[in-house]
Amino acid sequence: MPELPEAETIARGLDAAVAGGRVARVRIHRAEVVEPLSAAVFRRAFTGRRIARIGRRGKWIVGLLDDSQRWVTQLRMTGRFTWRAAGPRQPLRAEPHLSVSLLIEPDGGEPGVLRFYDTRRFGRMRLLAPAVYAELDARLGVEPLSDAFTPARFARMLEGGRAPIRNWLLDQGRVAGVGNIYAVEACHIARLDPRRAAGDLDRNDVRRLHRAVRRVLSDAIARRGTTFSDYRDLLGGSGDFQNALRVYGREGEACPRGDGTIERAVLAGRSAFYCPACQR
DNA sequence: CAACGGTCCTGTAGGC
DNA sequence: TGCCTACAGGACCGTT
């Protein structure tokens, strides 16, 4: 579920909580989360490292370590972090869906425990050498909130695209961080039918979609993301953007623009919501 | 080679 | 109430 705004919210929280801190202990509760590394190798490489800062690239959470490795986490659908004061040692009890726990000694602060939970177990955590991180970075497309994402560049990218615009936006190699919710919402804001072929958009369509993508992502960051069920920030708080959604998940409801009833279409196996009256 | 379908998992909502 | 199916924020991988 987590898309760019959720990853940004989590990354900011992590940076505030643990930047400057030292990784004092690493526990891998589910080995698949660190594949293709073994749990032992991951633990050895991570333990003792200092975390310089934590940010985001697309939907990936990226921490820079003092040995210039990158600690990267893909939340995929249900990955979630929690941060709590370490406190006295608790008896071990079953922690459903717990994948990784890290004891962090912050720079000057009280030690805390960072836990990574993942119900559906699609999430992944890796340690990448600089050259390997560079490959990941190169594979991802432009950051939609950066100055590099201009209407002109967007127009060039869209040229000749045959995929429906909603599908086109989900490709992380083009615009990094847009997922299904925000792709669908951006199409509504821009008054574009999500099934339109990417290459068919005219200059005005492109300009509106460019603004819509940036606007929906920054509004969602300001509201700390969208929570349906799983997504939470570091302290367990919900996002607020679900209350601002115009069409996503609202099949059968009235279009917020007034005319029309929201419909659902399945594109490439995934739901797209749109208003047939105002999206063309 | 862009685009799409299948697949990896578990939980939940809704129909009957 | 309970059983069964469909679907969920992602993205790799193989095929067309």
From TrEMBL:
Hydrolase keyword on record: yes
EC number assigned by the record: 3.2.2.23, 4.2.99.18
Domain annotation FPG-type: ranges: 246-280
InterPro entries the UniProt entry points to: FPG_cat, FPG_Glyclase, FPG_N, H2TH_FPG, Ribosomal_uS13-like_H2TH, Znf_DNA_glyclase/AP_lyase, Znf_FPG/IleRS
Keywords (A to Z) from UniProt: DNA damage, DNA repair, DNA-binding, Glycosidase, Hydrolase, Lyase, Metal-binding, Multifunctional enzyme, Zinc, Zinc-finger
GO biological process: base-excision repair
GO MF annotations in UniProt: 8-oxo-7,8-dihydroguanine DNA N-glycosylase activity; class I DNA-(apurinic or apyrimidinic site) endonuclease activity; damaged DNA binding; zinc ion binding
Coiled-coil intervals: none
Pfam family, one: Fapy_DNA_glyco
Superkingdom of the source species: Bacteria
Matches recorded under PROSITE patterns: FPG_CAT (PS51068), ZF_FPG_2 (PS51066)
Cofactors, names only: Zn(2+)
Catalytic activity: 2'-deoxyribonucleotide-(2'-deoxyribose 5'-phosphate)-2'-deoxyribonucleotide-DNA = a 3'-end 2'-deoxyribonucleotide-(2,3-dehydro-2,3-deoxyribose 5'-phosphate)-DNA + a 5'-end 5'-phospho-2'-deoxyribonucleoside-DNA + H(+); Hydrolysis of DNA containing ring-opened 7-methylguanine residues, releasing 2,6-diamino-4-hydroxy-5-(N-methyl)formamidopyrimidine
Keyword Zinc-finger: yes
Formamidopyrimidine-DNA glycosylase catalytic domain mapped to chain residues: 2-123
Gene3D superfamilies: 1.10.8.50, MutM-like, N-terminal
Record's subunit section: Monomer.
Similarity annotation: Belongs to the FPG family.
Record's protein name: Formamidopyrimidine-DNA glycosylase
